[in-house]
Specification:
single chain, Nucleotidyltransferase, domain 5, five-stranded mixed beta sheet, 5 strands, 12% strand, HTH-like_dom
């Protein structure tokens, strides 16, 4: 091929250097995105972010690079505390939602639930309300007792923040807090329709259950809360600054809930 031996090896070494340079650049970016997400992003999300930056790279390659770097996203431990008290004689709303989790517009369907948060200073419970369209946490409260006031506070915060029009569907489990007279009166005052899961069927409220699972995997099980104040500050930071505004969701086209919700605001303005 009329190529000298020295010329061939010079070309080969240059090519290897380019490959090594590309790998080094990618590994630097992988490490950046991993730590920027506070060790919460795995290969799929990091691959997407790198592709957005213009890199042509496969998820498998990023997975191998993460192994080489010793980077592993947060992994949850199995630990569950029962937070649903459905052994009561309070009125139960019909299951209007019926696992129809796809909603075309924000503030049409909200789902609510309570979860346990371990803390050395004492037990804590988190009541959350999620918008099914944007996956945004529109209201939440953290408290020491699993009371009606706790879930009412989350609902009032959500209503104050979003001011939804009448007819919004509010879905929850059959817990006594959501079936209480005070909670039902508040839903009526806000002109919201009530919907409740079937007894013992966690899939009927899967979206908010999924959020609480992600919260525990990415925050609660990665840290040890020594005080209730520390728990509140960490959860506030996670929900308001990371989950709602920064964390990308594959179901939202790799946008954060707030960025996805902004698309609907632009349509209104147009």
């Amino acid at each position: 091929m009329s190529v000298s031996r020295s010329g061939y090896y010079k070309w080969k070494n240059a090519e290897m250097s380019n490959q090594e340079l590309r790998k080094r650049t990618l590994m630097e970016r992988v490490s950046y995105h991993f730590h920027d997400s506070e060790q919460r992003y795995g290969a799929p999300k990091i691959t997407y972010l790198l592709q957005e930056e213009g890199h042509t790279v496969a998820e498998r390659t990023i997975g191998l690079y993460m192994q080489e770097l010793g980077l592993r996203a947060c992994v949850s431990r199995k630990y569950k505390v029962q937070t649903t008290d459905s052994s009561h004689d309070l009125p139960i709303a019909p299951n209007v939602l019926n696992q129809k989790f796809k909603t075309e517009k924000p503030n049409k369907v909200w789902v609510a639930d309570i979860t346990y948060i371990p803390c050395r200073e004492g037990r804590l419970y988190l009541a959350s309300i999620l918008d099914l369209c944007t996956r945004e946490i529109v209201g939440w409260r953290l408290g020491s007792r699993m009371t009606t006031d706790l879930v009412l506070g989350a609902l009032q915060d959500a209503y104050k923040a979003k001011k939804p029009k009448k007819g919004l569907l509010h879905h929850s489990d059959r817990g006594s807090q959501y079936a209480s007279d005070d909670y039902r009166k508040q839903l009526k005052a806000y002109k919201m329709r009530a919907s409740m899961s079937r007894k013992g069927n966690c899939y009927d409220n899967a979206c908010i259950e999924s959020f609480h699972s992600v919260l525990k995997k990415e925050l609660v099980y990665c840290k040890r809360f020594n005080t209730k104040q520390q728990a509140y500050e960490e959860i506030y930071r996670y929900i308001e600054f990371f989950y709602n505004r920064k964390r990308i969701h594959s179901a939202l086209g790799y946008l954060s809930p707030v960025r996805y919700a902004a698309k609907f605001n632009k349509r209104k303005a147009a």
